[in-house]
Write a structure and sequence with these properties.
The protein has 221 residues and is of the alpha+beta class. The protein has one domain. 26% of the residues lie in helices and 11% in strands. The protein has three helices and seven strands; from the N terminus they run H-H-E-E-E-E-E-H-E-E. It has a five-stranded mixed sheet with strand order 3-1-2-4-5. A two-stranded antiparallel sheet has the order 6-7. The longest helix is centred in the first third of the chain and has 50 residues. The model has no long low-confidence stretch (mean pLDDT 91).
Length: 221
């Protein structure tokens, strides 16, 4: 082994410590950046999932003169399947194997619950005249019934085990417990009736104090 001679380059202990410190500092800067990049990728996948849901609902409605699919809230009482099953063939999955979508389009990567539907349909679109809600007996079962489709929420990120969200019972911000409104850094994705997806903070889409309600078809503006 060659021995270092006078004048040969070598690392002193101080230089080694400085080098290690720089590496640690760079790693400290890199890790948050990587976490942010992963979070951005997961959020983008979630938005993509909802856009695909929007396409499936549009296809479903087109085949039925504009009719919206039902959720567990009302499907069984009308002799139908809920939307996770009825939309499955339009998403490339056999209807009876719709649970396979719980590992894909139906599940947000930022939803820590495994094998769970991460999205819920706005129940306003399946209420009938016999139900209890502001605006009855008006109903919004068909796309043509919705005054402002680009401003009215159809699907939202859900944190409950249900496949629907019931804003017809909300009186204030404290009631919005089923919406995963903070899943993506304090905000969440929303699919609107016209098929576009936007990311919003909760008060941007529901804040009764400021007369903001993009869930109710007659209050969205």
């Amino acid at each position: 082994m060659k021995r270092l001679q006078n004048g040969d380059a070598g690392f002193t202990l101080i230089e080694l410590l400085i080098t290690v410190s720089i590496i640690v500092l760079l790693a400290g800067l890199l890790v948050p950046a990587l976490k942010s990049a992963r979070a951005t990728a997961r959020a983008a996948q979630c938005a993509s999932n909802m856009r695909q849901l929007g396409v499936a609902v549009t296809l479903y409605s087109t085949e039925r003169e504009g009719l919206f699919p039902r959720s567990q809230h009302s499907a069984f009482s009308h002799g139908e399947y809920a939307w996770p099953r009825t939309l499955a063939p339009l998403l490339g999955v056999v209807e009876t194997q719709w649970t396979n979508l719980l590992r894909g389009i139906y599940h947000c990567p930022d939803d820590a619950r495994p094998q769970t539907v991460s999205y819920g349909v706005n129940v306003y679109f399946e209420l009938g005249p016999e139900d209890d809600y502001t605006g009855k007996p008006a109903t919004w079962r068909y796309r043509s019934d919705v005054p402002l489709p680009a401003r009215t929420i159809l699907f939202a990120e859900n944190r409950s085990s249900a496949d629907h969200i019931m804003p017809n019972y909300w009186a204030g911000l404290s009631d919005v417990g089923d919406v995963a409104h903070d899943r993506h850094r304090g905000s969440a994705h929303y699919l609107f009736v016209d098929g576009h997806v936007d990311r919003h903070k909760l008060v941007e889409i529901y804040n009764p104090a400021n007369e903001v309600d993009q869930w109710h078809p007659l209050r969205a503006k």
